[in-house]
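Mods, move this if it's the wrong board.
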Amino acid sequence: MWKFFHWLFSKIAAGQRVIDRRFTRAGMLVGGVLIASATLGADTNQTVSYRIFAFAVALLLVGAIGAWLQRGRYTVVRQLPRAVTAGDAFHYRVTVGNLENAPRDGLALIDELADPRPPLAEFRARYKVPTYRAWKQMIRNKNACEIKEIALPDIAPRSVVEITVTGHAQHRGNQHFQGAVVARADPLGLVRGLSLHGVPGNLLVLPKRYATPPISLPGSRRHQPGGVALATGIGDSEEFVGLRDYRPGDPLQRIHWKSYARIGEPVVREYQDEYFERHALILDTFGSDTRAGSIKQAATATSAFEEAVSVAASLAYTVNTQECLLDLMFVGNESYCYTAGRGQLSAGSLMEVLAGVQLCASQPFQTLHDAVIARRAQLTGSICVLLAWDDARREFIRDLQKSGVPLLVLLVTKEPPEDRPPWLRVIEPGKVLEGLAQL
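Not the wrong board. Structure tokens:
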């Protein structure tokens, strides 16, 4: 059953895509008349609608021949920005060149985005029942950007035009551009000839960020084994302080031989252990099972997760990482930890990581629990962004509290739990700005 419906929905989506590109509005109207007349004119003895059918077929046939004859040859160069923010409009430049010796008018540019049709395994894993409504919902969520076709100005022979295309970043993710299409309608204005151009590109859509008040993270500086040198991969090094006289028991590896040769007395290098703040930003990626509920419930769970990612992005951008480290921790196919600050990743790099975070359905919440607890000795404080308040998450927060790690716990949910403790901050999807303003 799943294979049949997936095949059927894929064919419907592909057919709709061909119709939208190949036919103008007038062409779609003629096509509708053709279908209606074919339905009504089955019996030629009872009606003369078959004449309308023949006339519509002739119009579309002439239009198709005309569109094929004047497709033209063009060049397309696209200049995409590196990254944009979800929810914002963006602009980029496209240069279109005419390779023909005749002028071209009535052109339109269509950016060809990646095929949004989900594979069978993904479609089956997402929903409990295969419905076309669920299919359309997945199609809408696949493309991170919406870019409408744009009319091109007239192009003189052997010349180029440069235009500005405006798009809208709908949600975070990596938007892939497969190519571009230059379309030109036939003289009747019914069918369009398409000139395909392989102009691939990628546009990174960063998570939406909200304004947050300055956050004073609790906790004091702690000893970090290996210090910042740990990031450069040179081992368990410490920060160099200076030189001092040799003392019995000092390792020979620390003798400064140049000074020893100059003054004739053994001198050793003195190091100091690194002490600084290290905070964890913990993102809960374990949403509810969308297969267990309706499409509306699945959309609500997805919306809550997207808002949780936006909350994490806002906090990551707010924390000053010049004098501390910030560990972004979450679970996907495995446990991930990305560290920003003090010569490591920047806040912008964390935004790029959060742009690709997805809900995790292959592992239990205990995976995140174990990964964070394993690092608790290094942590000064933690910010937890949760999606639910169940037994597993209560135990997780309780273990962190027992270890003495100061916490700021945020729960992103539509329905606040009745038994929530007073220190648990609830943020409702759609009202994130108001919730963050109360921190």
